[in-house]
Structures are given as structure tokens and as C-alpha cells.
Amino acid sequence: MKYRNPVIPGFYPDPSLCRVGDTYYLVCSSFQFFPGVPLFESKDLLNWKQIGHVLTRESQLPLHGATSNGGIYAPTIRHDHGRFYMVTTNVSHGGNFYVYTDDIYGEWSEPIYVEQDGIDPSLYFENGRAYFMSNGTDEQGTHGIVQCEIDIHTGKKLTPSKCVWQGTGGRFLESPHLYKKNNAYYLMASEGGTEYGHMVVYAKGNSPYGPFESYPENPVLTNRDLGGYQLQGCGHADLVDDPSGNWWMVHLGFRQIDEWVMHHITGREVYLVPVTFDENGWFTAGEKGTTRLEMETDRLSDIIQQHPVADKCFQNTEIGVDWCFLRNPILSDYKFSNDAFLLRSNGKSLADTDGVPTFVGIRQQEMNLKISCHVSVSSEEAGITLYMTPDQHYDIALRRNDDGFEIIRRLRIGDIKQIDGNIPIPDGNAFLIIHCSNFVYRFQAECDGKLYDLGTAQTKFLSTEVAGNFTGVMIGLYAQGRACEKFSTFTNFVCQNLEL
Question: Which of 14, 120, 149, 366 is catalytic?
Fold first, then answer.
């Protein structure tokens, strides 16, 4: 059958997965957004349903002061003796830690911290032992992939940290995972940076500590040499076997806004490729070591229907699942129902890096969308934002002025801020509309039967290449200005996928 990549579009980077029976579970990075670590499940590897987040309490996920390059990096999910473990790094608070649960649909434990440096931690279980791995520096000062054994109940190190592999020579050695197949141990990692040179590499050894021999044809997967191809940045991978004994790789990648334009706005996404082992125990991945937007395989049944991203509205989305907040939210500033979101300003703005603005957002998962929402403003300003960082966001909003109310458009790109539109309206009510395409966002507003065009803005200025961050564009509803007791109201929200 043929299937489409990405299998999870939008800002869901650094995927990791495990299988329990016939069900797969997958987690991704979340950076400064709360709750943290999106959690998905699937029966077929193609259709993934988000069932929640792993980190749902501030005690698990302190994000005070976390920027778009802070917060939660690169989680790993594993299952051992009936218990799920998720290990990750909060680079803004506390470092490497893991949590666990016996109920994948329930709450997870409080964090258990591990005193080993680096990022991108992973766990491997064998014969009652728990191995903890990250990139970092061992106790002899050697940098590379570092491993120790831990007491899984306490996080205490049982052995010194030891560097077990230093990769193949590429920069930014990261995202290590350890596997065992047919008595051989495989250590897979990524090099080249999570950019256009990203690549997956691996080595094979005869024990969890090696010594490891690099795969002679490394990298095993990369799109770095596919010039003029929309899909780039393939790396940071994880492996899983299916119930039939086939092996698969999920990894991150990103779609440029055009095959010849090196900007991407939807973030690093989740991609799937088949893996094949040869008679010598080495494996290959993808289509001749690359990932394609359309893949063909005989390992999946032709009866599987791959579902595209559905249109989104308040009625078919959930707070804390689809919708998330910037840093740790002040929940008293929100009221939610199936028909309306109510938000009030607390004095913080989208441009602030300290404190918590009143914001709730979903990911932009496709490039061709129509976003619309009816807004009734009670604070100084309320509207829709296309948010990348505090310094990179486009907003369309209603706000109060000395004469009453107006519709504005704000473009913020680094140190440059432009506010235009300034369309007077008789009261604080209007439909706000954003048309999204690969190259431009178009902003419109409808009020009293009149349609106002507020112009376009180029998508590339909200790209990761410009913003210099690790996330993707979030479609946010927000209220800002002076702290206000009254709530602004958002109704009839629709995010329509025009690529269906």
C-alpha cells in the first residue's frame, strides 16, 4: 500500500514510541507549552490519536521563564513489566528526569531525577536492570553517548556514567536509543543538528556497553542530499517492531513551504519508514536511506484508511489535549465550554518572556487552512495570533481605543513591529478570519455585514529559520492589555483544512 508522510503533521518533534500488544504509544517534545509531552496511541502506525499529555501538573512541569528554546526536550517512552516510563529533560528546571504510570490513560508520577548530564535521555531494560543513556560527558571527562545503570525506583545511579560511543564524527551527537535483536545490541543516534544536515546513525555491539561497531554505510537515513525536495531535516529516530515481526522507524522531519524555499513553519513533524535487517544483522531504513512524502510498503494492509487532519472546532477538541498554554497558566483567567472560550487579560502580553500571558493554542498542522472565530472583546485587546516566539507572531484582534473599538493587525518580526488596519467598528464584536497558504497569511474581518481586508504577511518570517527556535506556528486565542476582571468571548471557532 501507499501511505502519506508525515503521519503526525505539525509541531510534534523528537518522536519516541513503544508497543504493548497490538497498540503503539508515542510521545513528542513540547518545549515551553503546558501540559507537556503529547501522548498518542495507534493500532496501525499511520493513524494516531492524541490521548492526552504525560506532564499535566506544575509539580511535574515547572516552566517559569521558559522560552521557545527552553522547557521539555526529547522524551523517550518505554514499557517494562506492566509499567510505562517517560524520560526527558526540562532544560529550564531540573534537568533529566522520568515519570511512570501503570495506567496509560491516567496520571503519571512525580518526577524522579537522575544525576547524569546531557539531554535526550533514554531507558533500556534487561534482566531486571535499568540502563539510563543520554548525550553528555562521563565521569572521566569523555564526551559522547553516556550510560549508567540506575535504581528504577529512586533514580539513584548504581554505576558510574561511561561513554559508550562517540558517533561517526558528525556534529551534535544526540537522541541515543538502545535496542536488542538476536543477541546483538544496537545503539542508534542522530548527528548533524536538527536542521538540514540531520541524519540517523547507528552501531552494533555484543553488550549494552559495547564495544560498538559503526554501521559501514552510515548515515542509515537522511534527506540532506535531496536538493529540491520539500521534506528535509530527517533525524532523531526511534525503532519499534510490529506483531508480525517487521521493524519500523519513526523520526522527525519538516516540510519546507516549497521544495525550493528553505523555510518551514509547521515545525518538526513525525514521519514513518520501514526498516529491513540483512543476514549480517545490519539494517537499512526508508527508500534507499531517505524518507519520502509518499511511501510504498507491503507490510501494511491495503484495507487501512489513512485519515487526514480533520477540521477543528471547540466541539471536537479538548483543553489539555488539542489546546495548550504558554508556560504554566493562570487558570482563573480562563473559562471553557463546548460553545465558547472566555479569556481575560492579566497584564502580560504575547511579547513578554516573563510571566504568563492569557493564551490558548493549537498547532498549525497544514499550510493551507482557513481560521475563523467570532470575538467579543471586554479587555483592552483580544484576538487570534499566529505565534512562533515572543518576537515572531502575527495577530489580528479587536481592541479598545479612545473612541470605542477597532480592528487591528499586528506584525512582529524580531525588533520590527507594525500595527495597521485600525478599522473603527461600532462595538467590540467581529468575525476574525485568517487564510493560510504556503507563502502568505491573509487577514480579514467581518463586522455588520461588511468584509474588511487587512492584507497579507509572508509565512517565511514565522519560520524556524528566521525565529531560530525549535517549535512551530501555534494558532492561538489570546487576551492582553491591562489586567481586567471582565472576560472576552470567543465563539464559532473553526480551523478548516483546505488540503482535504
Answer: 14
Is residue 126 a part of any domain in this protein? Answer: yes
- Percent of the chain scoring above 90 in pLDDT: 97
Q: Is residue 307 part of a domain?
A: no
Domain containing 376 equals 312-497
Query: Same domain for 356 and 249?
Result: no
Q: Classify burial at 223, counting beta carbons within 10 Å of its beta carbon; exposed 0-12, middle 13-18, buried 19 or more.
A: buried
Residues 316 and 227 in one domain: no
Backbone angles phi, psi at 34, to 5 degrees: -130, 140
Do 372 and 473 lie in one domain? The reply is yes
pLDDT of 68 over the 90 cut: no
Let me know if 381 is a catalytic residue.
no
**259 catalytic residue (yes or no):** no
**Do 261 and 319 fall within a single domain?**
no
Confidence bin at 116 (pLDDT 50/70/90)? very high
Side-chain half-sphere CA neighbours of 92 within 13 A? 21
* Active-site option among 41, 174, 269, 381: 174
Using the Cα atoms of residue 465, residue 265, residue 492 and residue 419 in order, give the sign of their dihedral: positive
Q: Which of 338, 328, 380, 337 is nearest to 359 (CA)?
A: 328
Under the banding of pLDDT at 50, 70 and 90, the label for residue 500 is confident
Query: Is 110 within 8 Å of 101 (Cβ atoms)?
Result: no
